[in-house]
Each structure stands twice: as structure tokens, then as C-alpha cells.
Amino acid sequence: MIQVNIQLKRDNFDVLVNETFGMGITGIFGPSGSGKTSLMNSICGLAKPEKGSISINGKKVFSLDEKLNIPVEKRRIGYVFQEGRLFPHLSVEKNLRYGMTKQDSSGLFNKIVTMLNLGHLLKSKPAKISGGERQRTALGRALLSSPEILLLDEPFSALDANLRQQILPFLLKIHQSFKIPMLVVSHDITDLLKLTNNICLMQSGRVIGHGEYHELVRKPNLQHIFSRHSLINAISMTVSRVDMETGITQLSYGDSHNWINVVIEKSRLNYCKGDQIKIFISSDDIALSAKRLPSVTIQNQLDGVVREIIERENLRLCIVDVGFPLLVEITAESAKRMDIEVGYMVWCLFKSVAIDVAG
Ligand SMILES: Nc1ncnc2c1ncn2[C@@H]1O[C@H](COP(=O)(O)OP(=O)(O)OP(=O)(O)O)[C@@H](O)[C@H]1O
């Protein structure tokens, strides 16, 4: 657990944060210049706040009152930057071993090399490997310093879409295996949602929201922070049936009578009944209908009740309870024409191909 209660002077404002970050993964999201990096730098000791205190797993690493400021290298924090920051003259292996503090009696080096699939790169120099491989090396180096927490500042931004997809599962694997708090900064909410639904929103040096993404997006005072295209449904579901021939995979959610069909390419069709899977559907890829449509190609037709309608300029964000909350964005004109109100029964329609599957 990370407890932060600080004031840090910046050029345009003070970063004022009083927040606790739990053992899971927290996504730090906010516009450019909102103070995300300043917060990370304060936690790791690269920036010294004017006031306050910081504790990691109950141990103070900074306290102005107690005149305590544990140096960066003694805070037991793994920090991965946007561009990895590897030593260019050292091989991947030497970069990995650089931060190791003690004798590797438990075989941690081999475990991390295997987990991050770095075995074939150990002799290579950073300039000779891809951006994704460099980022995996930086992650491995951070983990080999036996950190108590992991901070990742824009770990995906130097990577193209394909490499991002490759690094995300590694981050999840790391979290499952090491079970340490992870703070991940990104200005791409979809990337963050692939890792966690626990989001901390920053603006002008303040935390303006912290909690479950679906709860944050329905708060009228936070609408401005999510750009129109970033309103995405991120839902963890259970695989209930897999058709190996067609790739059609049926997903269920708790006791809900609604299920979702998603088409997964054969090369990635390695799911079994009972597996957990996270899917993403953009809120504007979902249409609403007053009735079920029997003769259309749209595979997914989920019935539900409109629980909330939030105004977003000329759009309306409907929160539809289909057994789980589904964000559906329609135009104000459609909402008026269909006479949609809170409490109405509706059908949510979306194609299987509109669904993105994590990993
Ligand atoms: N060392 C510094 N001293 C004073 N002000 C700083 C310092 N570093 C950054 N700032 C200012 O503090 C503000 C917050 O910067 P910060 O890098 O923390 O934001 P950010 O949310 O991480 O931005 P980005 O997403 O663009 O990386 C900016 O206005 C920046 O110019």
C-alpha cells in the first residue's frame, strides 16, 4: 500500500495529493501537465515535496516534519520510464543484473527472464532489440531490484499498437506473480483499462476522482476529463462456450441471463470454459432498440433497463443495466426520438466484431 499526503510546487500550480493506493494496479490518467509524473517522482524520491509524508507498505520514506527523505535507491521502488532508459553499452543480461541487490538464491533472474521471454536476447545490446523488447528488459531490471512497488510512467507510449498488445499481458503476469502495488501512468485510458478498472484521475495537480472506471464516467463533474472516444466498456467475463470451428466464444457475467458472443481468431483461440476474459466495447458501437430485432446479422442483443442518462453536449450517455452496467452513447436527437428515459426497457445491440479482447 502507498500512502501519499504531499504538496509539491510546480511551475503553474502545486501538486496537492492526499491518496492511498492499494495492493492492486492503479491507472493514473489525466491530461498532459496534470502532475502525473510529479506524483510518481515524489513517490520514488526524484522530487522532494515542500510538505507532507509518503509511506510504502507502512514504512515512511518521506516526512517533512520528521526530516526524513530516504534516497531513491533505498526506497525499494521499481520505476520504468517511457523509453526504458537502458544502459546502451551493456548487454540485456548486464542491464538486467544491474539493479540486483542480493544473491539470487531463489532463481529470480531465471524466473523473470522466462516470464518476460528475454532468454534469446541476453547477449544483445539495447540498440539491437525492438522497442517492446527494450521495455520488457526495463521491466525485468526493475523487478530484479526486488521492489516493494512498481511505478510505470507511460510504459506504452513509445510502442506501436502491436507492441502495446504484446507488453500488456506481461504486466498482468508480473502483477499476478509478484503481487506488489503497481501505479501505471498513461494518457490512453484504453491501455489502462486493459490492466485495471481502478483509475485515479488527475487535473491541475489534484486528484479529482479515484475508483472504479464505470463509477467515474457517470459523474457529471468528471465528464470533461474523458474525451468522447475514450468512453469504453471494459468488462471482465467468464468463457461459457467455445466453438473451435467458427471461433465464436460465448461469454457470461455472474447470474445475468444475457451473454455476449465474440469472435476470436483461431491463432488466439486458447480459452477454455470457465476462463476469465476482459473485453472492450466502445460505448458508441452499441445501438439501442425498443425491441429485439429477429432478422439482423447483429449477434449481440442484450435486454436491460436504463438506469441513468448523462448529458454530454449533443450526446447522451445511457447506463443500461443488462446484468452488469453497459455504457451506451447515443445522440441527443436519437434519445428524444426514441423517448428514452430512466427506467425504460431497451435492447443493446452490437456486432461481435465491435468487441476487442484483452491479451
Ligand atoms: N522540476 C519541475 N519544476 C517545476 N515545475 C515542473 C517540473 N517538472 C514539471 N513541472 C511542471 O509541472 C506540471 C506538471 O508536470 P508533470 O510532468 O508532472 O505532468 P504530467 O501529467 O506527467 O504531464 P505529461 O502527461 O505531459 O507527461 C507541468 O506544468 C510542468 O511544466
UniProtKB/TrEMBL annotation:
Keyword Nucleotide-binding: yes
GO CC, any one term: membrane
PROSITE patterns: ABC_TRANSPORTER_2 (PS50893), MOP (PS51866)
Keyword match Nucleotide-binding: yes
Name the UniProt record assigns to this protein: Molybdate transport system ATP-binding protein
A Pfam family recorded for this sequence: ABC_tran
Record key words, sorted: ATP-binding, Molybdenum, Nucleotide-binding, Transport
Domain ABC transporter as annotated: residue spans: 1-229
Domain named Mop: residues: 295-359
GO molecular function, one term: ABC-type transporter activity
InterPro entries reported in the protein's UniProt record: AAA+_ATPase, ABC_transporter-like_ATP-bd, Mo/tungstate-bd_C_term_dom, ModC_ABC_ATP-bd, Molybdenum_import_ModC, Mop_domain, P-loop_NTPase
